[in-house]
Write a structure and sequence with these properties.
Elements (H helix, E strand, L loop, with lengths): L10 H13 L4 H7 L3 H4 L1 E4 L2 E4 L7 H13 L2 H10 L25 E2 L2 E2 L1 H19 L13 E5 L6 H9 L9 E5 L4 H8 L7 E6 L6 H18 L4 H5 E5 L2 H7 L6 E3 L16 H28 L6 H15 L4 E6 L7 H13 L17 E3 L11 H6 L6 E6 L7 H20 L3 H6 L7 H4 L7 E6 L4 H22 L10 H15 L10 H13 L4
Parallel strand pairs: 5-6, 5-7, 7-8, 8-9, 10-11, 10-12, 12-13
Antiparallel strand pairs: 1-2, 2-13, 3-4
Helix pairs in contact: 1-4, 4-13, 6-12, 7-12, 7-14, 12-19, 13-19, 14-19
This protein binds 6-O-phosphono-beta-D-fructofuranose (F6P).
């Protein structure tokens, strides 16, 4: 365990503290006025993604100090250790090797003395063969009908990535097939997803790293009953269920032949798994070639992160800017607004990626941190978001740094819409940065009584992320950009970004409450008075007591 000097005692941290005092009163208007080339200088590019970070409250010195902080925290060495397959997930004693999922065939990365790259490609090959057979009708349901519907059952990392990627890449998907996602244990999720579907044409992909997750296993059992009751034979499971998991034993116990299981490994974290076999539903939707393009995009960003100097390294810069606002400006939250409706689930995907990774309160030495760690991440697509919550970002009292993500070419033939969309994205970044002063408003004829209400202070920071178009490859690069951004933050905060112990307690307590809710006889309750009263009310209203 790492019990070296505390983050706040490092030289770079102290220097950043002093630097913050120097520049926190300087506005983006001033910074742009002082340096007319700023918009071209504070930019970086890699793996097909362009980042304009000029509208951040930083100077060249800020960047130098942030990079110094990263170096003092060992970012480069820890990054290299991750890529080598060292067990950097200390609390679970595991390697962190999602980057191995996208290395080209023929590369070599070893974990516990075994080269994992051939295993990775063997799974991709099996997935590709299966996806081709389902897509071209060689894999049939038990009555001989073609598979028209694919339902992914999974939750957390076994759901958010697949759904996000399916929606993002829908323009390249097999339109003759329906793709649906069941995650919540709320029965409404399953009922709605299967509404109107013919079981004989439906394939369930049960996605769960552990194959023990309550929600997923409940939904999977319901799915099996729905199928078997309708088709009248238990053997139907063989052609209508496949599993994606690391746990062959549990898959077999559930009744799925492991010949129909696609595996991955404990060195792939759930929230880092959309490019593993967990992406099977994505591959079924977009086909193996597009899926491999997506992997190539991930790999391109991995290579950028691994080799580019920190000063021009996109994920490192973004991660360090998050530290800057989170720890020095006290920003509690960050917005992510994709100006692409296909990316509507991207903010939800990033919530798990960032908040499950960096929502930690002890450092790697097991000591409570005396600084803020992961910010709250949220967002919705622009332009919708502009008509709901942007008001608070423009004129509210909280500082909310935002990432605005857009593309130069549309996926839709309606190019005119696209110009309007992108004009809005550029305009929002401009408005947030520069605002509108009282003098400008008066000059434009604003009545005096209205002027104070119309002033926009500006000075609201944004990153603008621009790529050519939302292809599978771009999506891979974009996701890897955020994965390594999150990694950078975690290294600075000296936390384990790859465990998630905080989610366990609630699961255990729910396990205790389940029989108390559903048992026929009134249970003896031993919770606090609030929980006891809620359980009693629930049972009473359900007519159980
Ligand atoms: O409860 C959190 C979590 O463990 C996530 O980290 C994970 O992505 C999700 O549950 C689902 O887990 P599994 O894939 O094992 O069903």
């Amino acid at each position: 365990m790492n019990d070296g000097p505390r983050l706040t005692e490092t030289q770079a941290w102290q220097a950043l503290k002093a630097h913050y005092e120097e520049i926190s009163g300087t506005s983006l208007r001033q910074l742009f006025a002082e340096d007319p080339t700023r918009g071209e200088r504070f930019c970086a590019e890699g793996a097909g993604i362009f980042l304009d970070y000029s509208k951040n409250r930083i100077t060249a010195k800020t960047l130098i100090l942030l990079v110094q902080l990263a170096r003092e925290c060992g970012l480069e060495a820890r990054r290299d250790a991750m890529f080598r397959g060292e067990k950097i997930n200390l609390t679970e004693n595991r390697a962190v090797l999602h980057t191995a999922l996208r290395v080209p065939r023929g590369a070599s990365i070893s974990v516990d003395g075994r080269d994992v790259v051939p295993d990775v490609h063997a799974v991709i090959d099996r997935m590709s063969d299966f996806a081709d057979r389902v897509r071209d009708g060689r894999w049939l349901g038990c009555t001989g009908k073609r598979i028209k519907n694919v339902i992914n059952i999974g939750i957390g990392g076994s759901y958010l990535g697949p759904e996000m990627a399916y929606l993002a890449l829908r323009p390249s998907s097999q339109r003759a097939m329906n793709f649906r996602f069941v995650s919540n244990v709320d029965g409404a999720d399953f009922t709605e997803a299967t509404q109107g579907l013919d079981p004989a044409e439906t394939l369930f992909v049960i996605s769960s790293k552990t194959f023990t997750t309550l929600e997923t296993m409940t939904n999977a059992r319901t799915a099996r009953k729905w199928l078997v009751d309708s088709l009248g034979r238990e053997e139907a499971v063989a052609s209508h269920f496949v599993a994606v998991s690391t746990n062959g034993e549990k898959v077999r116990e559930f009744g799925i032949d492991t010949a129909n299981m696609f595996g991955f490994w404990d060195w792939v974290g759930g929230r880092y798994s959309m490019d593993s076999a967990i992406g099977l539903s994505t591959m079924l939707a977009v086909g193996p070639e597009n899926f491999k393009e997506m992997l190539a995009g991930f790999h391109a960003m991995d290579e950028h992160f691994r080799t580019a100097p920190l000063e021009s390294n996109l994920p490192a810069i973004m991660g360090l800017l998050t530290v800057w606002y989170n720890n020095f400006f006290g920003a509690q939250t960050m917005g992510v607004m994709p100006y692409a409706s296909c990316l509507k689930r991207f903010p939800a995907y990033l919530q798990q990626l960032q908040m499950e990774s960096n929502g930690k309160h002890v450092d790697l030495g097991g000591r409570f941190v005396d600084y803020e760690t992961g910010p709250i991440i949220w967002g919705e697509p622009g332009t919708d978001a502009q008509h709901s919550f942007y008001q608070l970002i423009h004129q509210g009292t909280k500082l909310i740094p935002c990432d605005l993500i857009g593309f130069c070419r549309p996926l839709s033939p309606l190019d005119h819409h696209h110009d309007l969309l992108m004009a809005n994205m550029f305009a929002q970044a401009e408005a947030l940065a520069f605002g509108k002063t009282a003098a400008e408003l008066t000059g434009e004829g604003s009545p005096d009584f209205q002027t104070p209400f119309r002033i926009c202070e500006g000075n609201r920071p944004t990153n603008v992320i621009l790529a050519e178009s939302l292809t599978p490859k771009t999506l891979g690069s974009l996701v890897a950009l955020y994965e390594h951004n999150v990694f950078t933050q975690g290294i600075v905060w000296n936390i384990d970004s790859f465990d998630q112990w905080g989610v366990e307690l609630g699961k255990v307590l729910a396990g205790r409450i389940i029989p108390e809710l559903s048992g026929a006889a009134a249970p003896q309750l031993g919770h606090d008075s609030s929980t006891n009263a809620l359980i009693r009310r629930y049972r009473r209203l359900k007519g159980r007591d």
